[in-house]
Design a protein that fits this description.
Blueprint: E1 2-5, E2 11-15, E3 18-23, E4 26-32, E5 38-42, E6 46-47, H1 49-57, E7 61-65, E8 71-74, H2 83-92, H3 96-125, H4 129-138, H5 141-146, H6 150-168, H7 189-211, H8 230-253, E9 262-265, H9 272-279, H10 311-318, E10 325-328, H11 330-344, E11 347-350, E12 355-358, H12 359-375
Parallel strand pairs: 1-5, 2-6, 5-7
Antiparallel strand pairs: 2-3, 3-4, 7-8, 9-10, 11-12
Helix pairs in contact: 3-4, 3-6, 3-8, 4-6, 7-8, 7-12, 8-11
């Protein structure tokens, strides 16, 4: 069971064998810790020492986010005891042939999912742009198959992502000002929701990786760096389209989220008298602000995700160009959380094991498959594909 605690000013306390979410004298939830896998806490939530000890004792993955969903950190659970598995993860980082083959499989899976979703959009919206984008992405498959370096694969992935996000706009029934992926800060409602969903997905993939006793740091596609959970980001790639992007389309097209569910947040340097007037503007118009510090930690949805060594290039491709941040209002935020959890409990036929599982279970199954590849008991990693 995964729990999201969002009530600002609430306290998480221990009462006997259970945990209670309380605010004042009111009890909002009773949590049975034996059934908990992950607790995600947003914003101003207090945890008593007894509750904290209870979570740690039972190994519950406890994640801390800002009120608007920016990942901040988590309780450190005991390190995996299988030191030989972790040693092999690090040794394989120097095996160029192994790394290229694994990255080729991950990138191919991600691009195939992009193509599938774009062709769905082509059929439902009766537009040629998604079909043209899908064709351009398909043209990269041959290059991926003959790539001689991981840097080349990163380049092809980056090119495909740019094409994909440029065409994803045609999947929305209304124009929400979305034209490309922007996360520093998100400058339109679609990017705001994508950032939040990717953060949720990041947390769930991290938990799946730890559950199969893998170290979340060493990986191949995302550059290993100080404190970066590169393996989490590698294994997220195949699930971005399947879970986050399809859900984002549904949230807007089914009108679960609408324009008035978002607000513009200006940098503090903007004069107070102008802020109120600008905040009333249509968020889809994406007006320019006067932000001074775009790399402000408040604007990050996830830890640095860059694949390449060129941090400047990656930064320029994802910054908002001086525009103000667009964020979800509280009620809309809760709706996104509820629908994400509903998506994670959706069942489908999992081909590698020929039986029906949920997407939450699929994260663990794919992490387990990755472990088998690292151990050498399985030769090929099979990314999950959108059907």
């Amino acid at each position: 069971m995964n729990i999201y605690i969002q009530t600002q000013g609430a306290r998480l306390i221990r009462e006997g064998r259970h945990l209670l979410v309380k605010k004042g004298e009111d009890t909002y939830h009773t949590l049975f810790v034996e059934k908990l896998e992950q607790v995600v806490i947003f914003g101003n939530i207090d945890i008593t020492p007894a509750a904290r000890a209870h979570l740690l004792r039972h190994g519950v993955d406890t994640v801390f986010c800002s009120k608007d969903g920016r990942y901040q950190g988590r309780f450190a659970t005991p390190e995996p005891k299988n030191v030989m598995l972790r040693k092999r993860q690090f040794i394989l980082l120097d095996d160029q042939a192994f790394g290229i083959n694994l990255c080729r499989q991950i990138v191919t899976g991600k691009l195939m999912n992009m193509v599938t979703l774009l062709m769905r959009i082509r059929r439902t919206r009766n537009r040629n742009e998604p079909k043209i984008a899908a064709k351009e992405i398909r043209a990269l498959f041959g290059k991926i198959g003959t790539a001689e370096s991981i840097d080349s694969l990163r380049g092809y992935e980056g090119r495909a992502s740019a094409i994909y996000f440029g065409a994803l706009r045609w999947g929305f029934l209304q124009d929400f000002g979305f034209g490309r992926r922007v996360r520093r800060p998100p400058t339109d409602p679609v990017n705001a929701v994508l950032s939040l969903l990717y953060t949720f997905l990041f947390n769930r993939v991290y938990a799946a990786i730890r559950r199969v006793n893998l170290d979340p740091h060493p990986a191949f596609l995302h550059v290993p760096d100080y404190g970066r959970h590169s393996l989490v980001m590698d294994l997220m790639e195949e699930f971005r389209v399947i879970i986050a992007d399809t859900l984002c389309l549904s949230l807007f097209n089914l009108k679960i989220l609408q324009k008035d569910d978002f607000q513009i947040e200006y940098h503090k340097s903007v004069r107070q008298e102008n802020s109120q007037e600008k905040a009333e503007a249509d968020v889809t118009a994406d007006p320019y602000g006067h932000m001074a510090n775009l790399d402000n930690m408040e604007q990050f949805d996830l830890p640095s995700q860059r694949m390449s060594e060129n941090a400047t290039e990656d930064l320029n491709s994802e910054t908002g160009g001086g525009k103000p941040a667009v964020k979800l209002k509280d009620d809309a935020f809760r709706r996104v959380v509820e629908n994400f959890e509903r998506k994670m409990t959706t069942e489908f036929h999992y081909l590698p094991e020929e039986h029906t599982i949920t997407y939450a279970d699929a994260l663990i199954a794919q992490a387990g498959m990755y472990r088998k590849v690292i151990e050498g008991s399985l030769r090929v990693y099979q990314p999950l594909l959108l059907k």
